[in-house]
Automatic annotation (TrEMBL):
<dbReference type="InterPro" id="IPR006195">
    <property type="entry name" value="aa-tRNA-synth_II"/>
</dbReference>
<feature type="binding site">
    <location>
        <position position="140"/>
    </location>
    <ligand>
        <name>L-histidine</name>
    </ligand>
</feature>
<dbReference type="InterPro" id="IPR036621">
    <property type="entry name" value="Anticodon-bd_dom_sf"/>
</dbReference>
<dbReference type="GO" id="GO:0005524">
    <property type="term" value="F:ATP binding"/>
</dbReference>
<keyword id="KW-0963">Cytoplasm</keyword>
<dbReference type="Pfam" id="PF13393">
    <property type="entry name" value="tRNA-synt_His"/>
</dbReference>
<feature type="binding site">
    <location>
        <position position="126"/>
    </location>
    <ligand>
        <name>L-histidine</name>
    </ligand>
</feature>
<protein>
    <recommendedName>
        <fullName>Histidine--tRNA ligase</fullName>
        <ecNumber>6.1.1.21</ecNumber>
    </recommendedName>
</protein>
<dbReference type="InterPro" id="IPR033656">
    <property type="entry name" value="HisRS_anticodon"/>
</dbReference>
<dbReference type="Pfam" id="PF03129">
    <property type="entry name" value="HGTP_anticodon"/>
</dbReference>
<feature type="binding site">
    <location>
        <position position="144"/>
    </location>
    <ligand>
        <name>L-histidine</name>
    </ligand>
</feature>
<feature type="binding site">
    <location>
        <begin position="96"/>
        <end position="98"/>
    </location>
    <ligand>
        <name>L-histidine</name>
    </ligand>
</feature>
<feature type="binding site">
    <location>
        <begin position="311"/>
        <end position="312"/>
    </location>
    <ligand>
        <name>L-histidine</name>
    </ligand>
</feature>
<comment type="subunit">
    <text>Homodimer.</text>
</comment>
<feature type="domain" description="Aminoacyl-transfer RNA synthetases class-II family profile">
    <location>
        <begin position="38"/>
        <end position="372"/>
    </location>
</feature>
<feature type="binding site">
    <location>
        <position position="307"/>
    </location>
    <ligand>
        <name>L-histidine</name>
    </ligand>
</feature>
<dbReference type="InterPro" id="IPR004154">
    <property type="entry name" value="Anticodon-bd"/>
</dbReference>
Length: 497
């Protein structure tokens, strides 16, 4: 064996370990952690209000239970993160929250009771190439109904998803849930003679680009093909002019109301059996949405939604943020998709051979938290009140005051270290503290504490032009008896919330 073979797979580099982490696994600090926690609490609160119960299936599943997300057995790490159990069986980190649900329902059998209505929230892992806004580990928050065949169950998922987005602060016009169905699209494909899998896939991919390329660009992709700005040519689906016209009429059937869209679709889908069945599905969903009080602006029937139609067996829905935001780089961004779902009646059948109706809705918590942060709506996260330590030889006074504040229900800490007042104040600012408590010799002698409201102090300081004036005014600063410290600090903290 050579010396090279003896080298460890990883280890010290020039006497030091290399500080690095795998791509796609983001470090999260407190602000993001709390933003995600608030989103999960709000969304699951809506799910519970609608009668769903919590279920946690754990992070690992046997790899073969992940179904279509698992590649062949010879490549168990492609698409998922997997490892062998002590009995040599491959198990993998869950790819989503739906496949574990299907396994759970199959294991429980008829004793579970149906319909079974569950929600779940947690991280999922995908062994895919990471990129901007695309992670290998991220949080989702799902709700599913298993055992309910009617389209009213799909409508309930859609309306509940819209309510969850409103609950987290989305205003009318800032989001939309778009609804389509696989059978309706199948009817259109059958009607234009698209029987081959390659042609059908080319049409689906063309329709998926309607928002970006417009009708003319999609028409090129439906026909001979399209050359983009860089000169690259994409081969088209090869449809004739009449077939292209019919597919575009279908894709552009969306109107201001769900009823108008359905009327347009009735003209565009023709008389195929699949088209009639798909139209019937959407009509049933539209009636249920009206009964559920889902606003027209929140939920639209949109025949251009094609993502996920290979996975879902019926209706499919996609939630999208519409608001454009300006990032720190000055560029304008549109966040796009932040969730979706649909009907998947074949998933449990993988385990039991029995078709079990199921429908679900998933919100991408990590993506939504990132979107809210970009929009400046991640929510303010207050830091602790900081008690300055002005007696380097005896920090007991500061420690005691911090403990007293905590007993009063106030988040607080005593400054640890031997720095002067200015560095301690900078530390409090960096911690986003609402206030600092100061006790020096004068305060100890008088039995008082000095409290500085950092938010008001910063606002008033802007109007002060000189250091001398600042020292004289001491903006945002009050002195109160020691016995009144907790109430005075509490008032400051609550005023800033």
């Amino acid at each position: 064996m050579s010396d090279k073979d003896n080298q460890p797979l990883s280890g010290p580099l020039s006497g030091k370990d290399l500080a690095r982490k795998p791509r796609g696994f983001p470090d999260k600090r407190e602000s993001l952690i709390h933003a995600q926690a608030r989103l999960v609490e709000t969304v699951t609160g809506v799910y519970r209000q609608w009668g769903f119960e919590a279920l946690d299936t754990g992070a690992f599943e046997y790899a073969d239970a992940l179904g279509k997300f698992l590649p062949d057995a010879d490549r168990p790490n492609a698409g998922v993160f997997s490892m062998q159990d002590d009995d040599a069986q491959w198990m993998a980190l869950r790819y989503d929250l739906t496949a574990p649900l299907a396994r759970f329902v199959a294991e429980q059998g008829q004793g579970l009771g149906r319909p079974f209505r569950r929600y779940a929230a947690g991280p999922v892992w995908r062994n895919e190439k990471p990129g901007p806004g695309r992670f290998r580990e991220f949080w989702q928050c799902d709700a599913d109904t298993v055992g309910a065949p009617g389209f009213h169950a799909d409508a309930e998922m859609i309306a509940m998803g819209a309510e969850a987005l409103r609950a987290i602060g989305m205003k009318p016009g800032e989001f939309v849930i778009r609804v389509n169905t696989r059978r309706l699209l199948n009817g259109v494909l059958d009607g234009v003679g698209a029987t081959g899998a390659d042609i059908r896939l080319a049409i689906l991919r063309a329709l998926d680009k309607l928002d970006r390329l417009g009708a003319s660009g999609v028409a090129d992709l439906l026909g001979a093909g399209r050359k983009d700005e860089s000169g690259d040519f994409t081969k088209g689906a090869g449809l004739g002019p009449e077939e292209i016209k019919r597919v575009l009429a279908f894709a552009e059937a969306g109107a201001d109301t769900r009823a108008m869209t359905l009327a347009n679709l009735a003209k565009a889908t023709g008389s195929t059996e699949e088209g009639k069945a798909g139209l019937g599905e959407l009509e049933a969903i539209a009636l249920a949405l009206e009964a559920l009080g889902a606003p027209e602006d929140d939920v639209k029937i949109d025949p251009s939604v094609v993502r996920g139609l290979e996975y879902y067996t019926g209706p499919v829905f996609e939630a999208e943020l519409l608001r454009e935001v300006t990032g720190e780089d000055g560029k304008t961004y549109r966040i796009g998709s932040i969730g979706g779902g649909g009907r998947y009646d074949d998933l449990v059948a993988r385990f039991t051979g029995e078709t079990v109706p199921a429908t679900g809705f998933s919100i991408g918590i990590s993506r939504l938290a990132a979107a809210l942060a970009i929009m400046g709506e991640g929510g303010k996260l207050d830091g602790p009140v900081v008690v300055l330590n002005l007696d380097k030889d005896n920090p007991g006074v500061a420690l005691g005051l911090a403990a007293e504040l905590r007993r009063g229900g106030i988040r607080a800490e005593a400054y640890m270290g031997a720095s002067g007042m200015r560095p301690q104040m900078k530390y409090a600012d960096r911690r986003n503290s609402p206030a600092v408590v100061i006790v020096g010799g004068d305060e100890l002698e008088k039995g008082t504490v000095t409290i500085k409201d950092l938010e008001i102090g910063a606002q008033k300081a802007k109007a002060i032009s000189s250091n001398e004036e600042y020292r004289e005014a001491r903006p945002g600063q009050i002195e109160v008896p020691r016995a009144g410290m907790i109430e005075a600090v509490r008032a400051i903290v609550e005023a800033q919330r």
